[in-house]
Design goal:
2 copies of one chain form a homodimer. Chain A has 428 residues and is α/β, with parallel strands linked by helices. In chain A, 29% of the residues lie in helices and 27% in strands. In chain A, the strands form 9 sheets. A 6-stranded mixed β-sheet of chain A has the order 6-3-2-10-23-22, with helices on one face. A 5-stranded mixed β-sheet of chain A has the order 1-9-8-7-20, with no helix packed on it. Chain A has a 4-stranded parallel β-sheet with strand order 14-13-12-18. In chain A, helix 1 runs parallel beside helix 8 and helix 4 packs antiparallel against helix 5. The longest helix of chain A has 20 residues. The two termini of chain A are 37 Å apart. Chains A and B meet through strand 6, helix 4 and helix 10 of A and strand 6, helix 4 and helix 10 of B.
């Protein structure tokens, strides 16, 4: 294995950032153009993904490239930031080494921002039948399954089988689950209804399953109930206090009832991204890395964890939430801490400035909670739209994305209604 | 196997059209709203693809959904056209049956418009190393290979290996090969050059291999030479009279020279789509179905073949070319012939009205030939642009596609620079 030393000059510190999500990207941007540091941003994907809109790709409203931007292009004009395409499987904390593919890279500072992945609660075999929604590939896979289900139902002569094809179960009543359920209800009631002649797509059964007492737990009970009422009005069956016991090719076991469904999507548990640490470090029960209040690792003040991968208890039993604004702020905080290290400043604790939270429920409806402000309905949806458009700044073609959206909403069309196969070869 | 009879009314004739490309789509549109016919359009894909711009998807200029439109949506308001998602593997000409997945469907008229696929001249094992460019999946695979090659070269420390990664070989000097070679040269010299820090993408070696005497054989020698000069100016190495003897993971054997190259793309031979006919019928040496002058099958006046799947000798040794305008006109011709059959008119011979031909060579350059008019350079490129925008009419969002294009060309950016994996699962 070759060892890379990024910076040849002892006075220029090498910063390795693993992960080009909201946290890693913001850490790198904070360090950009500071000549005391040579930054290497490593990601196994070539693109930064605007995850809050991924459900729009899964439901054929947006193209993958609308919400994905090449990480490399973000730093084209920054002399001191280089981008490396590769997977990082392990870190040696004692030797200050990161292992990426066939090389080991030395660091002075390390920022791990590898995000989270779905957790199937000890049932990895469920994944095949219930894809999650974290990556572009998963989003196009979900799109393929949704659109194929309607196509296969159209061809199906057996009415019972048709019903099974037109049953969609979404597991997990958090924002992703709610947005996905709302969007599927929306397209089946508006976009697809015109296209099919044998089936009535609006008869599609969409079931949102939540193990907890109510959906959207992080929101107030009032907004959670409003969202549930909106979903029901859209035609979504919401089942709370319902536990998924099994998922297979035929459907889902919810409590003691088996629901036949050809399409099941997973928006339930998450766990921290996997990483081999030498020596081993302390993880929480979700597999996230426990960090100090400055987001550094205990005993390793030059190693930071930011974003969904970090576990920080901010008050008893309350942890930093896995939200985009948290990851952005954490990335900036870590970047600043590293910058300040040159003048030997003490590390400051990370304080999350609450930006509130929002979730959309189908078209024209959303909920928004910011401190004591609680809004639902159309105004919240407009606010949601503006916030998301604003944060897409830096993304290449907001105009094109806007055009796609306006088109989709105004004409109830979905531009990206594409079923693509996994295999490109002719010969199977 | 279940037998479907599409039309229950004996006076309403059932027309089965297989294939939603230019030929099949136009045949269906010609028959749309004619109540004497019930049309079923069957395609194994849910989308009609604007193939002339597929090379733009392969080179990250356009999104797949920009040039693909759901077939179903085209006929949403036509009572007498239904769209069926499925593969057709065989036809029984004696029993008037089409076999699609698990059903057989009866027809009164049959239009086969299944297009063409790549032919590897008896070497199907080359496909893995040299994808062709006929489908969306192949285009995103080529995009993945091009972008990954630059990323891997950036990480590569061995200069020889780096050179191999930055060598792109395109086999076949027809319009597709020329467009692909030009576009790869274009992005490596303009778009990518800003993004990479270790490698110089403009040093990428792009080799266009053509077995014939010159590239773009269907064009006049004058334009062919102009195109070749343009390609050379863009940095493409054009090798004519060069025969590909072997392709493997290391590179390409061209004549008696082996060229190391990690990326090889296939734009050479085509063959007619595969179909099992009972009884067997006559194919030409490219596997295309020989048709009568009215595009019907000998002895089966109610069966038509249109588009790239058909073989018709229009003068000794000259066959109908495999071009989009030919397929469109053939589809309309077949549609009209079927319409006229109700009043027992004799079948008219298909006469192709020559629309000329064009090919682009990178940005701002094209060649155009229409009867005695021969134009090259920027004016031809503008003409090419207008013709393609015009024919994208009917495609959902020309504005958005235009916006993407203007963006790409004006700022030398490529919006869809996305490397996506085949696998969506976390667990390998």
């Amino acid at each position: 294995m070759k060892t890379l030393r990024v910076s040849k000059d002892k006075n220029i510190k090498s910063v390795i950032i693993v992960g080009g999500g909201f946290a890693g990207l913001n850490a790198a941007k904070t360090l950009a153009d500071h000549t005391g540091f040579q930054v290497t941003l490593i990601d196994q994907r070539n693109h930064h993904l605007f995850q809050p809109l991924l459900y729009q790709v899964a439901t054929a409203g947006l193209n993958p490239a609308d919400i994905a931007v090449p990480i490399r292009a973000q730093f084209a004009s920054c002399e001191n930031v280089s981008v490396r395409w590769g997977a990082v499987k392990g870190v040696n904390l004692e030797k200050n080494l990161v292992y990426s593919d066939d090389v080991e890279i030395e660091y002075d500072f390390l920022v791990l921002a590898c995000g989270a992945q779905h957790s199937y609660f000890g049932h990895p075999e469920w994944e095949e039948f219930a894809p999650g929604l974290k990556t572009v590939e998963q989003a196009t896979e979900i799109r393929r399954r949704i659109l194929s289900a309607f196509e296969r139902a159209e061809n199906e002569l057996d009415l019972e089988k048709q019903k099974t094809l037109l049953t969609f179960v979404i597991v997990g009543g958090g924002p992703t689950g709610v947005e996905l359920a709302g969007a599927i209800a929306d397209i089946s009631r508006t976009v697809l209804i015109k296209d099919f002649k044998s089936i009535d797509p609006s008869k599609a059964k969409i079931i949102l399953v939540e193990a907890g007492l109510r959906i959207l737990m992080p929101f107030s009970e009032e907004l959670s109930q409003k969202a549930q009422a909106d979903l029901v009005e859209l035609g979504v069956e919401v089942r709370t206090k319902a536990r998924v016991m099994n998922i297979n090719a035929e459907g889902v076991q919810i409590g003691d009832e088996f629901t036949l469904a050809k399409s099941v999507f997973w928006a339930a548990g998450v766990q921290g991204a996997k990483m081999d640490f030498t020596p081993a470090i302390e993880l929480d029960r979700l597999g996230r890395v426990k960090v100090k209040t400055d987001l550094s690792l205990a005993n390793y003040p030059q190693v930071f964890i930011a974003g969904d991968m970090a576990s920080l208890e901010i008050s008893p039993g309350v942890f930093l939430p896995g939200l985009a604004p948290v990851a952005m702020q954490a990335g900036i905080h870590v970047g600043k801490t590293i910058l300040n290290s040159l003048i030997n400043k003490d590390h400051k604790a990370f304080l999350y400035r609450d930006k509130g939270q929002m979730a959309t429920i189908g078209k024209n409806r959303a909920i928004l909670e910011f401190k004591n402000i609680r809004i639902g309905g159309f105004i919240a949806w407009i606010a949601w739209l503006f916030v998301h458009i604003f944060y897409l700044i830096g993304f290449k073609n907001r105009i094109s994305v806007m055009a796609n959206w306006v088109w989709s909403y105004a004409f109830s069309k979905r531009g990206a209604r594409l079923i693509t196969n996994k295999e490109w070869k002719l010969t199977p």
